[in-house]
Amino acid sequence: MQRQEARKPLVVGNWKMNGTLGSNEPLLAALRAGLDAALLAGVDVAVLPPYPYLPQVSAWLGETGVSWGAQDVAGHADGAYTGEVSAAMLRDLGCRWVTVGHSERRALLGETSEQVAVKADRTLQAGLLPIACVGETLADREQGLTESVIAAQIAPLARLASVGAPGQLVIAYEPVWAIGTGRTASPEQAQAVHAFIRGRLSAAGFDAASLRILYGGSVKAASAPALFAMPDIDGGLIGGASLIADEFIAICRSAASA
Ligand code: PEP
Q: Which one from 104, 111, 136, 174 is the annotated catalytic residue?
């Protein structure tokens, strides 16, 4: 089956902890104008603002076909977890997506792959779709540990009963050494890991043909076309470049025409 038939490309903008109500407005206005129906016929596009700006994003993008989501979610359904935000609350705000296990959270907050899988499960139980981030450090890669590190990160996800249904899980492969560094994995390096992830999840019972695997790590408009041309790269998780409307829209165009 052709990739295009089975897996519509997906481009997700991770705003991280950036923006203000004021500075978001020109970005959202440009996205609303530039991400038109013709473009969105060829690519699914989502943005992940900080939690407080979800209502602003929904007000600007609600009628456009662009979806939105959150950068994290609590591993608990509700209760005495001060400062946490539940998946049901995100659903109330119209979210479709939740990233879980971003490398910044794994590194800075010590999130484990088991906790990431619990968050993915909570996301699914609320009717939202998890984008689970995995990736090796530079030291892992230099020691030849890339595949074993990725295998350990996806193993708890693969054990989730609900996650194996077609289209329920998105994986984002983000080599830690490429995030926010300006250093992108080569298309061949990224393709090799994407093919490995697809193979592992396929062996675990996933519908490999419908599993979307995004690449993330310093993707720019200039580097996107070669990455998206790879057979197992189904789009991108975009950090810094998602804050620059022209760059982000150009990346979406590349995915649509891949
Ligand atoms: C990210 O935040 O997931 C990311 C890939 O960031 P950047 O594109 O800035 O490297």
A: 174
Ligand 1 neighbour 218 (Cβ under 6 A): yes
Q: pLDDT over 90 for what percent of the chain?
A: 87
Ligand 1 close to Cβ of residue 240 (< 6 A) = yes
102 is catalytic: yes
Q: Among the options 102, 104, 136, 194, which is catalytic?
A: 102
Calculate ∠ Cα 12-236-225, nearest 5°. Answer: 130
Active site annotation includes 247: no
Prediction pTM value: 0.96
pLDDT of res. 167: 75
CATH 1.10.645.10 fits 10-60+83-240+252-257, yes or no: no
Closest atom, ligand 1, to C-alpha of 179: 10
The predicted pLDDT at position 1 comes to 44
84-115 pLDDT, tens per residue? Answer: 999 999 999 999 999 999 999 999 999 999 99
**Which amino acid is present at 202?**
S
Q: What pLDDT, in 10s, does the model give residues 156-169?
A: 998 886 666 667 89
- Closest residue by Cα to atom 2, ligand 1, is 239
How would DSSP label each residue in 169-232?
-EEEE--GGGTTSS-PPPHHHHHHHHHHHHHHHHHTT--GGG-EEEEESS--TTTHHHHHTSTT
pLDDT for 2 beyond 70? no
Cβ of residue 175 lying under 6 Å from some atom of ligand 1: no
* Minimal-distance CA residue to ligand 1 atom 6: 239
For the chain, the first-to-last Cα distance in angstroms comes to 16
Helix (H, G, I), strand (E, B) or coil at 14: strand
